[in-house]
Design brief:
The protein is about 35% helix and about 20% strand. The chain is an alpha+beta fold and about 200 residues long. The protein is globular, with a radius of gyration of 19 Å.
Length: about 200
């Protein structure tokens, strides 16, 4: 009996350690100050887009988003507004759809093209086919934002998290996290609030 209890205890310990390790793996990704690797992903116009394509950019607002998440839909107009405000100032929005389209067919390329046309997106809307990019960033939600600053060393992560502090009502927003971060960088200042909790749907794998 004691031997059986020991075996069960050992098995439970292995399961616990495995679960802990898996959770840690899913939480890994870029932190503030890290250099973000470039990528090459397919856009809705069938071209391949990389950060290196933006020769005159000062940085990027990399946005993991999708068609099917209600939170992402609530933020579509705000993402568009970010690109309209900051794209011309050197911080364009680069939107990436990270979901597994077998699990979420409403996020496939055809659906992405249709949604972009309906909403009049002026930013690239890329598909993370094979889901190789979002894990590098450590994105877990849609939407999940990463503000990058282009430097001589590379694209440095300066902000990670939510767009603002109210996903439900844009008129009730008090703190615009992404705007504050980009405004600071454009002034050559330090970003005061570097990380916030991303609010949205889990990325579907």
């Amino acid at each position: 009996m004691k031997k059986a209890i020991k075996i069960i205890s050992a098995a439970l310990l292995v399961l616990f350690i495995s679960a802990f390790a898996l959770n840690n793996m899913t939480q890994k990704g870029y932190g503030i100050g890290d250099l973000a690797d470039d990528f090459s992903l397919k856009n809705i116009d069938n071209s391949m887009v990389s950060l290196a394509d933006y020769k005159d950019a000062k940085g990027f607002i990399v946005t993991f988003t999708c068609n099917t998440c209600p939170f992402a839909v609530l933020y579509e107009d705000r993402i568009q507004a970010l690109n309209e405000k900051y794209g011309s100032q050197g911080y364009p929005v680069i939107a990436i759809m990270p979901n597994n389209t077998d699990v979420k067919p409403g996020d496939n390329m055809q659906a992405m093209k249709q949604r972009a046309q309906e909403k009049g997106f002026t930013f690239p809307y890329l598909i993370d086919k094979g889901q190789k990019v979002y894990p590098k960033f450590g994105a877990t939600k849609t939407p999940h934002i990463y503000v990058l600053e282009k430097t001589k060393k590379g694209n440095v992560v300066k902000y990670i998290g939510a767009i603002d502090d109210n996903h439900e009502d844009v008129s009730a927003v008090k703190i615009k996290f992404v705007e504050n971060a980009v405004d600071a960088l454009l002034k050559g200042e330090e970003v005061m609030q570097k990380e916030t909790k991303a609010i949205g749907c889990s990325i579907k794998v």
